[in-house]
UniProtKB/TrEMBL annotation, chain A:
Organism: Geobacillus icigianus
Stretches of the chain forming a coiled coil according to its record: 53-87
PANTHER family with a match to the protein in the record: UPF0749 PROTEIN RV1825, UPF0749 PROTEIN YLXX
Stated family: Belongs to the UPF0749 family.
InterPro entries hit by this protein: DUF881
PROSITE patterns linked: S4
Upper lineage: Bacteria, Bacillati, Bacillota, Bacilli, Bacillales
Name used for this protein in its record: DUF881 domain-containing protein
Entry keyword set: Coiled coil, RNA-binding
Pfam families: DUF881
TrEMBL record, chain B:
Pfam families, alphabetized: DUF1290
Domain of life: Bacteria
Residues spanning the signal sequence: none
Family statement: Belongs to the sbp family.
UniProt keyword terms in alphabetical order: Cell membrane, Membrane, Transmembrane, Transmembrane helix
Organism for this UniProt entry: Geobacillus icigianus
Membrane topology annotation: Multi-pass membrane protein
Protein name: DUF1290 domain-containing protein
Subcellular location: Cell membrane
Transmembrane segments: 28-45, 57-77, 83-106
Length: 234, 120
């Protein structure tokens, strides 16, 4: 009996030791598990954050790209716009220029004034027609002026356009239906030296006019103002 | 009969509640020691059932197995060879064998009882 009790006590001690070991191990394992679990959570959280960050960065990148694209577009638009404005400004300038050329605008500039007057000396009544200014004289002067580079020409202040006509109408010359009598002042805007020397060419227009007994006076003028052509008179 | 069980529970409670921390480096020693102790306990149970139980063998086996397993693990750690696997394997195999023997003994006893009941 005594022996059995002793063995029982020994067994109890051994069981106690085993139980203690089990307890330690259990505690350790549970702690480890909880730690690992926490770590797992942290990992997943970290992964989550990282993926969120990545997606944000991705979005940022795409947005930046979009921004760059938009800026490029904007620049292109601005360029286009400025070009358009430029071309419009050019157009306006050109329109102004063209209006000046066709006589729709008042022009002012250096030039020459050619005065054609009937001859002051008429030897006989019968040949009087040989001593007055005819429309072909005016024509020739006008043509010569245009050929020499005149930019605007007017007869007695009336602008000549590309559709103008000059006809003889008895005692007067009609320019676009408006009668003009001698003396005729033909004003031309252009380089005065060129125009004057072109007219005064030997054997040129002035010589011919003089031969036709027309009094010719060529003046260089610093400022000639020509009014625009008005609507043709009915 | 109840005393050893009580001792087991008490030990477990103390182990859990004492709050002693087993360092991570020694956790493998603890686990192998537990395995050795468990094996010895099961072996003792089997010996008891087979009426070959010897107290001296049991107690010396208990402590010696624990120390041996720990030593093997220690050697393995320091030699870079996983020697604790040998202990785990040996104890594991013996554990299962002992369990199987216990189960057979139980079965035999159960069959004998049923035969007796049928006879009577």
């Amino acid at each position: 009996m005594k022996r059995q009790a002793r063995s029982r006590i020994l067994l109890t001690i051994i069981c106690f030791i085993f139980g203690a070991m089990l307890g330690f191990s259990y505690q350790h394992a549970s702690k480890e598990a909880s730690r690992r679990g926490w770590k797992d959570g942290e990992w997943s959280k970290e992964y989550e954050y990282r993926s969120a960050l990545l997606s944000l960065q991705k979005e940022n990148r795409s947005l930046k790209q979009q921004l760059v694209q938009k800026q490029e577009e904007l620049a292109a638009w601005e360029k286009k716009l400025s070009k358009k404005q430029e071309s419009e400004a050019g157009l306006a300038e050109e329109a102004k220029q063209l209006r000046m050329y066709i006589g729709k605008a008042r022009v002012k500039g250096k030039g020459v004034a050619v005065t054609l007057s009937d001859s002051s000396y008429i030897p006989s009544e019968a040949s009087a027609t040989d001593y007055i200014v005819h429309e072909q004289h005016v024509w020739s002067v006008v043509h010569e002026l245009f050929i020499s580079g005149a930019e605007a020409v007017a007869i007695n202040g009336q602008r000549i356009s590309h559709r103008s006509y000059i006809v003889c109408n008895g005692p007067v010359i009609e320019v676009d239906g408006t009668p003009h009598a001698a003396p005729f002042v033909i004003s031309a805007i252009g380089n005065p030296d060129v125009l004057a020397s072109a007219l005064g060419l030997p054997g040129g227009v002035v010589d011919q006019l003089v031969e036709d007994h027309v009094d010719v006076k060529v003046e260089k003028q610093e400022a000639i103002v020509l009014d625009p052509i008005f609507a043709p008179k009915p | 009969m109840w005393l050893p069980l009580l001792g087991l529970l008490l030990g477990f409670a103390i182990g859990v509640l004492a709050g002693w921390e087993v360092p991570d480096a020694y956790s493998s020693y603890l686990s192998i020691a537990i395995l050795a102790a468990f094996d010895t306990l099961i072996g003792g149970w089997r010996a008891h059932l087979q009426q070959t139980y010897d107290e001296m063998v049991f107690i010396t086996g208990f402590f010696f197995n624990i120390v041996l397993a720990a030593t093997l693990t220690f050697l393995g750690v320091h030699l870079g060879v996983d020697l604790y696997l040998a202990a785990v394997f040996a104890f594991g195999v013996r554990l299962f064998q002992n369990m199987a023997i216990i189960r057979r003994l139980w079965l035999a006893e159960w069959a004998k009882r049923r035969q007796n009941r049928e006879k009577s």
